[in-house]
Amino acid sequence: MESMILTPRLACIAALVPQGARLADVGTDHGKLPITLLIEGRIAHAIGSDLREGPLDHAARNAEEHGVILPLRLAAGLDGISPEECDTVTIAGMGGQTIAEILQNAPWTADGDHLLLLQPMTMIYELSQWLWAHGYAIKRETLCREDRRHYVILSVRGGAKECLYPREKCAASPALIAAPDAGAYLRHLIERETRALNGMERSENTDIAKLRSQQALVRELTAALEGLK
Q: pLDDT of 33-78, one tens digit each?
């Protein structure tokens, strides 16, 4: 029997799922997140979806071995799930652009009736920009670490006013600054983005607009860190 002990990243997401939720877990892989929440009695119901048959077969075995019911859907994103089946959606371990595409293909996620827990692996600033521009409000940003890597989990609801924010404002948002351990994460971002800026400044082929954007990003992150002191 496979252990359902969650990694720190998945445990952090699990902690944000409301008690009694009806969960749709997109990209469920082996189903560890919904199965663990079902075993613990934290949620009323769960559905797992994935693009690949192999992981779904594995998830089905795990659910059976642990004595829980987990309907599984072979589908892209939320294509196989209707809005009435869930009130909470988790999308984790994917790129920011992929997460945006999943939400765009499921317009009902913007209705404000569903809590969206999003954990992008890349393009976090750009995903945040897209969310605000399309009427999704980022209510909370939760930080966690797994080994040496930092992760951000966005707690999101639709039904908000569409807002156009520059990338640097999304990178150092009020929700991020309010998060525990924001200082350590901001220092990590400043180090990473400063390295990127230095590389751009050394290059002879850097686009001026991208350079100015990167400079603004480093300034905003630095100001946010200074504001915490």
A: 999 999 999 999 999 999 999 999 999 999 999 999 999 999 999 9
Q: What tokens appear for 181 in the block?
A: 């351990």
- The rounded distance, in Å, linking the Cα atoms of 30 and 90 is 14
Side-by-side strand order, sheet with 115-120:
72-74, 43-50, 21-26, 88-94, 115-120, 149-157, 137-146
- Which structure tokens are listed for 26? 């997109």
Find the angle CA(111)-CA(113)-CA(114) to the nearest 5 degrees: 100
Listed in sequence order, the residues at least 6 apart from 17 whose beta carbon sits closer than 8 Å to its beta carbon are: 23, 37, 42, 43, 88, 90, 117
pTM of the model: 0.95
pLDDT of res. 3: 79
Q: What pLDDT score was predicted for residue 182? A: 96
End-to-end Cα distance, the chain: 48
> What type of residue sits at position 111?
D
Counting as low any pLDDT under 70, the low residues of the chain are none
Q: 154 burial class (0-12, 13-18, 19+ CB within 10 angstroms)? A: buried
Q: What are phi and psi of 116, to 5 degrees?
A: -110, 120
